[in-house]
From TrEMBL:
Signal peptide: none annotated. This is ASCH domain-containing protein. PANTHER family: CYTOPLASMIC PROTEIN, CYTOPLASMIC PROTEIN-RELATED. SUPFAM superfamilies: PUA domain-like (SSF88697). It comes from the Bacteria. Pfam families: ASCH. CDD domains: ASCH_Ef3133_like (cd06553).
Amino acid sequence: MTDLPERYRDAVQFAFGDTPALKDELLALVLSGKKTATCGALRDVKDAGEPMPEVGRRDVVLDGAGKPAAVIETTEVTIRRFDEVDEDFARDEGEGDLSLADWREGHEAFFARNGGFSPDMELICERFRLVETLGDDENA
């Protein structure tokens, strides 16, 4: 793979998911256009001192091996409780069968294994668009 294009050298870099396999699976959903939203526990961003998502910011998405794979641009950021997430947002996350029930089951398990789950926990809910893919043939 080529180096990260100069225009993205200072971008926030992250991966969706918490295991290499899940990171690759979620990245594939982004690349296919099925995943246009994501969420994370507000406490995790605060505790890690990570930057909050910002509308208009472009971030580099890493694959399961930690290599830059795509660039996304944030189009919406809201803070809401887990139990306030609606069907539209669950569908836009693009995971599982796209239902709210499946979203809740999968995300409850994810948060439980990553610091704890509570129905009233605050989430950073972000919508985004795919700007470009990065790969072996990409020219910087």
